[in-house]
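S1.2 Input.
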Amino acid sequence: MADFISFEELRLKMDQLKEKVTTDLNNSKLAYIYCGVIDEFLLFCKQESSYMPVDNVPKYYEQVTGVSPYIRPSTECKKRKARAVLFIRDTLNGCDLARRYIYHSTSIPETFQKDIQLYEEWLVSKECSRSTIRTRIGRLKPFFIFIFENGCSSIDSLDPQTFVNFIGTLDGHYSSTGKTNILYTIKSYFSCPMISSNLKFRFDSFLENLHTNKHERLESAYSAEEIRKVLDSVDRASGQGKMLYLMMLLASVYGLRSSDIRTLQLSNVDWKKQCIKLSQQKTKRYLELPLIQEVCLALLDYIKNSRPQTIDDYIFIRQKPPHVPYADDNHFSQKVRAFFKKAGINTDRKHAGLHSMRHSLATGMMLDGVQISEIATILGHTSPQTTTRYIWSDISQLRKASMEVMTYAE
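S1.3 Output.
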C-alpha cells in the first residue's frame, strides 16, 4: 500500500470491492453487512482528509472491533465487521481476498504487535502467500512469549544471552525439523529491514548452518483399536459429523493426505466401476482406489443428507455460508483432534489429525509384518486391492444409512 491514496481512487477501489463481495457471496444478508462496513470506512476516511494515510485501516479496525489490529474480536457480530475491514486492507494492498483469516492470537504479547505488522507487510511485498505468512507468524509465537517472559518488551532490548536461552528451550519440545523451522523463521524475521535496524547484536552467527533430521518426527501413530474409538466417537447424526467422519475414513482406510481429501471431487468417483480415481496433490501420482462398502456408504450418506446444495464439483463444501470448498491451508487438525480427545485417546507429545490416521495405517501394517516396499505401494495405491486388509471402520453403524449404492449410481 502506498503511503497515501486520493479519496477518489479510494472510492473507486471500494466500489469494486463491494461489487466483488455482492457477486461472490451467496448470503445476501452477509454481503449487506460487509458493504455497510465498507461505506462507513469511506466516511471515516473522508473525515480525516482528502488523502488517506496508510495507517487508516488499522485505526478503522480498532474503531469497528474495539480491539487492536488485528486481534480476534470478542463477538460474532464484530468478527463479521472485522472480516470486512480485512477485505479492505487486502484490496488496498493489491492482494486477493482470503476465504478465511487467522487473527493474531493474544498469546503474542501486545508490545510486539506493531513489529508483527511490519514483518507481515514485508512478506506481502516479497509476494509470500497468505498461507506462508500465517505459518511464519505461528512459528514466531514461542519466541515472542519467551523473550517477553524474560523481561524483553521490545526487539531493541533483546540481548544475545536471552536469545541463546530461547534456543536452548527448543530441545525436548520440538523435533529436529520443528526446531529448524522456528529458527529459520526467526532468521527471516530478523532479516526484515524494519526489524534488523533495531537489533543491538548480529544474529547471523547464532543462526548459521541450520540443519534438520527429516526422519525425526513427533510420534503420530495410534493402534487400530484407538483409531476405531476415534471414528466411533463421531456424531454421525449431524451434518458436520457425517462430513468429518467421511474425511477421517478416507485417511484411515486409504492413507490419503489431507490435501487429497480436501480437493476430492464428485467426478473422481466412478460409481459403476466402484472406485475413486485421482492424482495426488503432492506427488501428482495417479491413484485408483477400490470404493469399499464402508467408504461408499459414508460417502452416500454425506452427499445425500449433509452436503450443501451447490454446483461446485468438490465433494467437501463448507457447512456454513458461503457454501464453497475449503481453503488450501485447511488441514482440519483442530476438528479431528477434538474426536481423539472425546474418545479418551492419550495425545500427549503426539500429533492427532488426519495425517496421524494415515501414519497409523502405515504403522499398523508394519507391525503386522508387511514389507516397507508394500506399505509404500499401499499408500501410493498402485495395488489398491491390498488396502482392504487394513480397514479399521465399523460397518454396522454405516448400515443405518440404509442406502442403495446402485440406485444412486444410476
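S1.4 Remarks. The chain has a mean pLDDT of 80.
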